[in-house]
Protein 1
Amino acid sequence: MNLNSLALARIERGEGPVRVGLIGAGKFGSMFLNQVPTSPLEVTAIADLDPDRARAACKNVGWDDARIEATAFTDDGKELCARDDVDVVLEVTGSPPAGIAHARAAFSSGKHIVMVNVEADVLAGPLLAREADSAGVVYSMAYGDQPALTCEIVDWARACGFEVVSAGKGTKYLPHFHASTPDTVWDHYGLNAEQAKEAGMNPQMFNSFLDGTKSGIEMTAIANACQLTPSPDGLGFPDVPVDELQNKLIPEADGGLLHHKGQVEVISSIFRDGTEIPNNLRWGVYAVFEAPNDYAMACFKQYGLKTDASGRYSAMYRPYHLIGLELGISALSAVLRGEPTGRTQDFVSDVVSVAKRDLKQGEMLDGEGGFTVWGKAQPAAKSLQFGALPIGLAHGVKLTRAVKAGETVRWDDVTADESAEAVKARRAMEQAFRT
């Protein structure tokens, strides 16, 4: 609330609009760019590996020539972070190494950063958050994306005095999706390869949503921001309608499906037979919370909250998320309030690499959404004890031994480049947060 008023007041004081630097002009970035002409902020610079593509994206979302000409375009994200006309950086590349490098470039230049790049955040976010604090800048999740919106509901519940029992999002899920590859992904989306190509849809990126990797990444981001944890066995993806949240997303001891209180979980929008669940939460987020006493339980009933049979548990949810169309909220919050819209706090959850099929010694892993591995959310302590290879570093590394389908890949199973910045950052984070 009040962000628009604060932004307009800044302009009226003669300080100008909040100035944004965008790194990555793909779908998420384009949706944000679409909103810029009608919002109280300004994009002064855009970095993309292909600046001409970025210019075309601006044109495609409706920018006029004058706005495009007034914007600086570059292929160097670090250069963008150092610009004097940028107040806050939006990192939207999706590449963990790039995200870590850009975050540190922003810190060194005294710039706030909104890490749309959840992949980088789950790889080394707890360490980056500490570095942001040392630099005196904001390190934030991206409003509009599901992790930040879930964190908002969790914060609301806790600020009201409710205990958060579970939190997460919805997605389309069946168990065999874990084996999906970029060659099979479009069948599950009801498209063919030609249609997807015409729409500019990246098969590996979309496959990461389908094979469970993105769900693991997003639940880990929520867990690390909200001090929640996944089940020891990972996400279960139960098929749960919205009106059953308060009945199903509670501990088994109370008649639900959860391993423990304070759990992150993703719910499927389809039943295991593939039919769609009526009133599902495929595009939304939720949190289940518990009344602290009998008086609050009575209030739940008096004000029409749906509860479980005990009357103790209820749920709050948001049915949709608009990703880039809402991203400006994070930029404004960081600059005008000095507050993140959700932020990693600790390392309690991790995303480990699991073989999709029997992998041979000498094979190269191809990372998130690819042909070789998918990302599974696990408690961080379990990941560290096992020596699991994080999904964010499972790209372009060679296996030193064969790994069977369903097995977790270890650091010791690959030849990682220990001199790479992303690897060193991850190693430093593991050491800093090892308990």
Protein 2
Amino acid sequence: MSGGWSFTGLAGPADTRFGTVRRFAELDSTNRYLLDLARAGAPEGAVAVADYQSAGRGRLGRRWEAPPGSNLLASVLLRPVLAVEELHLCTVAVALAAADACGRGAGVTPELKWPNDLMVGGRKLGGILAEAIPAEASPAGSPLGPAVVVGLGLNVRWPPPDTAPERSPGEGPDEVAAAATSLWRETGVEHDPLAVLGLVLTGLEGRLVDLGDREGRRRLAGEYRRRCGTVGKTVRVSLAGEAFTGTATDITLEGHLVVDVGACFRTVAAGDVVHLRDPG
């Protein structure tokens, strides 16, 4: 199941459901690893973190790669009791926890871009990829139900500040560095990715409690709405087989994006969103 990858067990934050954090020097994908654990019947709270991912990816199959040890590359296994249309709230919970961790650990306050990005000054600081597997994928007779694995890629030590010495060739394409930022770039301080992970998991615990009841989910959606930089923007939404432009006006209680396209309002549960410059 582990594919021969070896890890070191680290203690998760106290008073959380995250017991042992599995730390890998190298792994193909932290999401893939936890999806395998979930299919084998692992309970909620498993965490995998890697110094380097050889097959890390983001939404729509995009690659997420950085020099080894530079950034936070981690995934968590959740087993929320949610309707299918509410599963995006798992991404919401991790996004909020990650944004808080950046504030608490580095004094950086990211803007949240729907559906899954953390942004600072128009540059990408982090991204989230959630993958669900149905209850029937668990071992026969397992009472665990469906699972959601949420992966977080957060730029901690890469790309470097604009004034820092350039890294060696091959350590990251220039076009990626130009469109991205990091806690180091924003603060001038090289933070520890594992320390940031501890803050993320601590902040995530309370939000997972909120996922368990309707009022808690309402709080999560409201907090995300307040911190979402997509709301109020003119956006282009790309879906399978179509694309449209409109004004993002709201976030639903399920964490979906509401877009005013003129003739009507469209609710987007999943899609690729680009912020457009407003006329004038």
